[in-house]
Fold each of these.
Amino acid sequence: MNKSTTRLIAAIAKCFMLFMGLVSVVSCTSKPPQTEAYLFAYFIGNGPGEEAIRYAVSTDGYNYRALNNNQPILDSKKISTSGGVRDPHILRGADGKTFYMVATDLYVPEQGWNNYAMILMKSTDLINWETSVINIPETYPDEFANVDRVWAPQTIYDEATGKYMVYFSMKDKGAHPDIIYYAYANKDFTGLEAAPEQLYYPPVKSHTKACIDGDIIPFNGKYYLFHKAEDGDPGIKLAISDKLTEGYQLVSDKRVDCQTVPVEGSGIFKLNNSDDYILMYDMYTSGRYQFTKSSDLRNFSVIDQEVSMNFHPRHGTVMPITMEELKRVIDKWGTMDDPLVDVTSPELKKLDVDFNNEARTVYLPVKNGVDLTVFDPQFKCIPGFSVKPEGPQDFTKGAVDYTITLDGKSDVVYKVTASNDHNPALDGFYADPQVLYSNKTGKYYIYPTSDGFTGWSGYYFKVFSSDNLVDWKDEGKILDMKAGDVAWADGSAWAPTIVEKKVGDDYKYYYYFSGNYVAGGGKQIGVAVADDPTGPFVAEKEPMIKESPEGWGQQIDPCAFIDPVSGKSYIYWGNGYLAAAELNDDMVSVKSKSIKVLTPKGGTNDDYGFREGVYVIYRDGTYYFMWSVDDTGSPNYHVAYGTAKSPMGPIKVAKNPIVILQDAANGIYGTGHHSVVQVPGKDEWYIVYHRINAKHLHDGPGYHREVCIDKLEFNEDGTIKQVMPTVKGIDPVN
């Protein structure tokens, strides 16, 4: 054979090998399937039976329902060495049809927070899993004999090598904090090819701090590594690299999550048919999850009010799936104890829809003006379930029977009622409502605390307007502390109050609020001023009230009051104490010598004990001081009152001091932190307060409060009649 022939054969062989390599790559990275739903793999807690993998499903990425009655889909004792399985991460393989899941092998009740292994799993149907355990100290004694923490593994496909990279955090017995490592899995996904190597090197100043819960996603030709870092302000941080296995640089020491409380276990995924991504994380000290959304993976906004789950997950991941895959897991784990059915009509007050699976009832609160003779709840079923009847129904004659069917299993009848109730008055989670009637516009306004933030950590204020106290229009934000609208505060945007004052021929609006003072000193009270009830409001550069006259307690919950008798203006505030002061003519400063403590004395503690949320009105020669009792998270949170002959007291506690109290029989709790409005020219009064709906009672009081309105009435002797909180609410006010 001559040299030319040899070179020709070699060239052909090289081309053949190149072709086969391309075929191999194409076969491994085939066209991704069309995903139209989502699978959420998670665990639920640290107790016996809670450290196990569970599934939930969604068709929109926002609303999730647990499968298998929120019970495990795998037996932790069979797949782990410890008996506990945590932090599941699920991934669709490059071939589009194989699935990989990794998890922490840890049983906290016996091991505490020290463990040695992780679990590798592989499946072709999401139901049957081949599993292996990798004990790091035993497998790599030369490199990692002292490791006593192996946490939160995740997997990603490396297109450059055609392999699956597993990355996770490890810590040894004192030599260094938790560090994120990586290693490639073997071909069968039953072990690692070699000893793990460090993946991410935090900035030098952070080397003494733990770094855990790595979460990588490719984006715009780079790799984005979200991770929990304990340096600086602990939280979810972002590092970016051009390469999968090296070169990650921290973008900022600022958190990318939207919280001030501890978080961990980030999970990021792309929404189907969208350019938006969801970053979710485990708020492990708060007992809840938070969802945020972004299109650039750097700036995220909270979308909690768009999200619902009928379970309480801990550190997990969401993976887009096909409708066929969704049907498969429902066929396996769907049950009639909790049918996967939702109602989607835009005419509903969605937050208060109540599915009672035990009683087989559904309560549908509709918005004002909806015609209940031809109302269609628009039931939406996850594949495998169906609902009859369809279309508009007449709900004015009582409950309508709906039959829910699970294919091939059974059906059940639910009695569905729909009601045009006016409470809650605002759509969404809000608290501490302050109501104003504006003489300038002839409209009513509500200025609430924006709820939906764990730990009462809201940072902006909104305003709503109405002509009749029933139909409310969202007028948008008026102050945003994160946007720099309040120079002295960075959060804790709490409990505002507002007054309208005639200045010359026009009106001014003075808006007082609580905030977290960036210069130290905790919660303090500031003021912003506007020419119209909806703003724009301009905040003073420094807080107005910085100190407690008692020397303790928070400076929160202001109430502004213009005395119709003297024309003087006052401000009241306090938490655990009640303070009062006269305002100067500028309305943005107090007469320091007028500051006085008015905390009510006498009476029965359970009935009236002053906590916070004071509100003052004047009627027929009497000044009524009302305030909230107990803790805002308590079902017993309620309003009490006393009277005085002067805006500066002293206050005499009423003989029967309760203004409004919970109604447990109707699922209404925590009725407090209120304000009161009088219909102009009439002795007609309404109390505006927040409540906790029974369905949210145990979900966290700092982010599930709702604003309600009921009528406030007086007895002939001037005492206040106790208000019965209602679901129906009030009729429109002319």
Amino acid sequence: MQIVPRHPWLIVCLAFLWHPVGVVAEEPQKSEMAGYLLVPHSRVPEKYNAGFSMYVAAWPLLKNYPGQQFQSGLFGTWMFAQHDGKKPKDQYSDIEGGLGWWRDTRFATETPKFIMGGVALNFSEWANGPGAGKGRDWKKPAGHYGIAQLSPWVLWPPDGLNLKQGTSGELVGYGYLPLPLTSPKKTTAGKDVPTGDQSWTLFLNTGNFKGPVAFFTPYFWSRPTVEKPELSGQFLDTKPSDPNKALQMETQHIPAYISKDAKGDTYARVAPVLFPRKPDGDSVLVHRITAYNKAALWDGVQAWFDGGSAVTGTIDPKAATVHTFDGKGGATWQIYPPNTAREKKVPVAWNSFATPVALDDTTYGYRWDKDSVTKADSKDGALVTLPEYYRLEKDKKDKERWVVVNAKDVPADTGLAKAEFPRSRKVSEAYVTPDGGDSSWKKPGPAAGPFQAKLGDGSVATYYWYRFADQPALLNADMTDAEREGVQKRVELLHRQWTKEREYLPPPTVGKLADLDPAVLVTPPKGLEVGYVPIVTRQAAKE
């Protein structure tokens, strides 16, 4: 039986007692935080146009890896070709990889991975590492064959090069310098367009590996000019590098929630964001950005390949210049719901808790407001957690900003205190290379294998040893058999002389070097120590 109240007005009065006059609190709305952290640095003379190196901190940006919507790099750069005068329009092409997490990362953990990130003309293709490119459709490879394996000691999984799990602020040294591994060509893919002789090579300096790892084949850059011959000679196979590069941290998605309380005030909460810290509280993030000219490495290697004396591979610091920092910096991080128009995205008051600093002339970092950040729950205390809660306010110029608020000052009726940012444990699809008997993976095929490496990210990499010139990337690099054999002879010289215990990049003067995942460090089988390289053919979750 339904009971009808004798005094309906009483219900109205009670409603006002239970809910203050104003807006009823809403359920938290899934949102995101994204933007750039900008690192100004000095310009250097244009003559230092043969590559670069630098040291960047590697750390877990989020306390819990949230899933594949999360995408963020750590600090990195964009290396473009150098042009005389005004840069051409509609010719985007560069090397822009580095440390981070991407939406197509399949075996992600809180620890970042490294990709090479070469971009062919206007993103028509991109190459992230040996056997890794734009998408995974091997019937239409788009950069999958753009990078050749060079090192016989480092295994490159297609999901990205793994660091040791638990890396928390140590430095990864890396850079790209051109090597004269190939000869220039007057024709490309049968057309009268040239391909240059610059093989841009990734050099690493880590705690457990030093030296060259892999390189972009010149054909990766020149291939688009087969259909657009008017652009020939405009890309990194031929052009030097622009030494004055942007240095930023690009973040595309960090999970967040936005909610209003019953009074109509708007609050936000972001997933716990971590940054490294030294014992004194400062963060070392970027160190020794160095630009080189061809005397640093190219000239000596070219003379060696032409019959001269062997060179050690140590990059000459006398043929280099180091960018400096003045302690300035900027941030464009914003918090907003999905599908928000650019002009309506509201910035975070970043400078209220983070101050950019030049820790010395060649080292950049942040100094944190001790009342805003907290020590993260890490075994060595090497991380801090940035503010999680924010309130939407207007500044003196009547512009909206997200300002930091303490958790205890966020009204309970926003529901933000109960919002969760759980760790994702999704089992991902395997990477599998072509298995057909007529593919470049099978003809002429590997010399030894299969072997397996159990990686720290929870995946297993299956790999084979290929003769260097017979690896799939070289078979798809628009090279004749004679041209590939010429490169084979040069690489054998490198394998004999450029051993993994040598120093290559100028060493850091601050911090500690990060380690690669020990599982990616391999030893060639007996008899295959020189002229052979490991190539991953499959990467899948552990069964």
Amino acid sequence: MKSLVIAEKPSVAREIARVLNCNNKNKGFIEGPHYVVTWALGHLVSLAEPEDYDQKLKLWRMEDLPMMPDKMKLKVIRQSSHQYQIVKKLLHRGDIKELVIATDAGREGELVARWIIAQAKCNKPFKRLWISSQTDTAIREGFKHLKPGKDYDNLYDAAVCRAEADWLVGLNVTRALSCKYNAQLNAGRVQTPTLAMVVQREKEIQEFKPQPYWTVRADFGDYYGDWRDAKGQSRIFDQERAVLITARIDGHEAIIEEIRRERKSEAPPLLYDLTELQRDANRRLNFSAQKTLSVLQKLYEQHKIVTYPRTDSRHITTDIVPTLGQRLRGISTGPYQAMVKSLVSQKLNPAKRFVDNSKVSDHHAIIPTGEAVDLSVLLNDEKRLFDLIARRFIAMFYPPYTYEKTTICTLINGERFYSRGKVVKQQGWRSVTSKFEEEDKKQSEALPEQTLNRQEEGSKKQLKNCKINRAMTTPPARYTEASLLTAMENPGKFIDDKKLRESLTGSGLGTPATRAEIIEKLISSFYVERNGKQLVPTSKARQLIELAPEELRSPVLTAQWEEELNHIARGKGSRKAFIESIRRGTRDMVGDIQQASLEYQPDNVTKSKCPVCGKNMLLVQGKKGKMLVCPDRTCGHRQPEKADNDDIFKKSRHSDRINKKLIKQYSDNEQIGTSLGDKLKAAMQEKEKKKD
């Protein structure tokens, strides 16, 4: 008898099969003496579409909303049905006695496997492979200590709740908005409140009115000082006051009133979780959140030099501590060799702030695996991202960064001027991350520091010069992916109500694994455009936030839902109660949209006609430049801004849906020309002949 192992991807299945000595390759699976290893292709099974419940729901009509199936059904995804049939056949094979779920060790990975098993109606016992890296050692150890499948039932319940909530809210609200305003408007429980934050920030920027202000700086020869009032404020919003200050001190002797010297110490930063790594990679490497996840996945699966990526923890557990030496030896190469040389020969005792079992849920922080790293086989982006992870890991073992901070208060005729300087005593962990710290310094808006010579309290100083500087207040910065990830992780910061803000502590919009996907979806749906690193909302986005249900715009409700999903995953919440609350909320939101009296008016309409339906197309900024998009949700045609008839033909000749519409309705349309209709008709006929 054998065990069937279900992996999430073919690449992972091949590695598991190799470690388990499965060498007999077949179509869709690899077999060995004790195990049969097969795989999904991401999801093979999903929630059924509305029309799978009732064919009338294939048409989007307001009178059919809200859609509330009594029981949510599953269906096989058509594009990957061939692999599903292979897995189903293996599940029911007579010599398969038990199953091993080896999909990604997280909420979504659990859903991938469980839905396949449920759809195939397989009742065989199963166990769970739960590992944090894809190394041979981790796989072997994982199979030696397989977990009972039932231990992850709560995680599966949370995954199902997430999927059903997205179906109920996303599909109903999207259809309601699209039907009400006859436009391609989509909304979701995470996407909409995230977009609302971007739109709100843009509103604050647009409404911001710059104000002039003045600062006063005095030169005392061997150092300078900046004027501050009794509250420590340096900005003066009355020019006359700034002039009076300079007049008051002119010709007067200065005296050093106070010198404060403070010894400061900065501990190494915590290790990376996915969100923190995405933030740093965006800020320092200009990676999008999605690119960071994609590159990180390769470092995890293909190169096997980092641990599980989709983690929300920045700590490690006590059982990892004995392996730290091996992990350091694994990265003892290239620029890291000198950094770890003194560490590998000593007993490693990381500070308690890094080792905390209570702060690790499913997976510990992202750290090296211990595999020997060969930097020469990594692509440039892989090297750069691994460099962040390796340096952050090494920094954990280094002493604090220490410096002496000196502040001098110089008094002149009742006015106080402050000077600040710093002397580094020990670089500590910053010697590992120094190149990044320099980059950060360039971008910093901190108060200026200077080199201060030794001074004594009570010393008299001569005022050499005094200068008034004029500046303007600046609006809040637009979101970058780094700052938006922070906002999604901590939405409570954007809530005025103190009680609500405190209730959101520890919860956020989406999960580390889904936040990058949400940002990319906002961009691909033309709600947000990238302007360098900045994220700028479009007119479509601003209008959608006005039209979407009020409760869906706020991060409060969605973050509370995510918190409840975490409770369900830990066995502390009710799946039934959660879904009932989602159903109630969905009914209310659809009702609000139906009764609304607002209008939607796109402001990017062009004179170009859609070749499929003839409507005036919208001009949008796509990933590869400007595009023309049909505003009719039932059409959905899109093309490059400067596409001609031949371009449209090349793009659409393989699409039966577009071809049939073009031939039936527009082969004689003056806008696209009869030649295009003839060419498409000929292409369709040729395609049909090949089928025969």
Amino acid sequence: MTRGQRPVRKRLVLVACILGSGVALVDGTVVNVALPTIQRSLGGGLAAQQWMVNAYLLTLGSLILIGGSLGDLFGERRVFAIGVGAFGVTSALCALAPTVGVLIAARALQGVAGALLTPSALAVIIATFHEQERGRAIGSWTAWSGIATVIGPLGGGALLNVASWRWIFLINIPLVALCLALILISVPRRPPGGSRPPIDWLGAALAAFGLGGPVFAFIEQPRLGWSSPAVVGPLIAGVALLVAFVVRERRARAPMLPLELFARRNFTVGNVETLAMYSGLAILLFFLVLFLQQVAGYTPLQSGLATLPITAVMLLFSRRFGALADRHGPRLFMGAGPVVAAAGMLLLLRVDARADYAGQILPALLVFSVGLAMTVAPLTAAVLADVPEDHAGIGSAINNAIARVAGLLGTSALGAVVAAQFAAGIHQRLPASSLDAPGRQAVTTATRLSLGRPAVSNLPSGERRRIDAAAVSASVHTFRVGMGVAASLVGLAGLMAAAGIRNPRRRVRAELCEGGALVGASPDAAGCPEPAQPAVAVGRA
């Protein structure tokens, strides 16, 4: 794949990559806003809601490394196109699902398709753009990727306002068709890699089942309890399989996860920051939308619109912060951005059952959004700048895998905490002895929601008010606990980056132009002749 392409063709390549990975990222969050609606249509409690989200993230996160390896071996264009096409097919399966079980299975298959297309999209960008252009291209890609992550609830809410929840999946099909057309038109073919080491299918299986065990345990624990063998067994087995996965990758001739990449400082620190940052982001989006609908009484459209400031701020500022990080180094932005985002999350601790948008939600999301915009482009660029170019596919796959695994573990682990907090809060506020049998049954049903108001219309008015007030109070407390945990994770991410990231060394070239000396500009961009003296390498702390 050549980088000497015309600007128009490069823009089409960038649009194709943004559209393809954007559709996959939207589907990671679009389901959040539809969960109460799907629950009413197909049934299921909190565990089913979590599986609708996590089945997708589980296969995406555990197989995305294989997707990156396939792109390096067989060409990013081919794997990208296959992944995009498969995503369209599996989206149709989700839309046609007759039961919760079928929908969860289709979501898992959708994640497999996402694992093919996501790392290939970024690898196509890296192979298409010159190093001097790459920072802005990646900034645009990450900006739109971040927007896609948070636009899901908005788009889903708008669709649910006028159509069935099934349209949140059907809408993918025309977008997939457009993306495939752009790939065929604009992305050049690249010969497959010369040597083709075997694909590490065993490593992929160990990763998938290793992640699946703890996720299953966290999701099912509120229903079964920590003493259940069905919870303890998968948890222990999953941890053991993850250890076996690391051992396997150390010894494999062609590992799915090249552990030697983690010897690179920025790559390692950046991925640790990704894990903490994206855990907090997933927790925020998942539980905020549920709280707004199930406690504060927002409609799906209103809860989707509530996240619009995140989209707007990302669109306005992510590319700019990517360019600033190119100029000044990523450490400042990777350190300060998460701290600002965490401050925004802490503002959500003021939210009460009314969830007043102007006074409580909007200021918090604006502060959070600025911090997120400061972080995403510099973070992605810093991680990939530390990867050899011939490992671009697997490098981007590792970072994407960690981001998806972060969301997977964040929502499932915190889901167990939230469920326990909510159940304890209701029982503390409503001793079982103070209720009659229908009231106790209503409370038991409410605890399965984790956040929300129970159905109490058939109860006497006094008992109805008591149960509703207790559920609302417990929901508010539980939501605040969740936001506090999320803020702690995100703030910790910033502190780790500030301590661990090193700005890369850059080449500073003095160029004599008519108006004076320009430092650090490329001759082509500045229109200046090459300087007579050699470039000097200058280290930046």
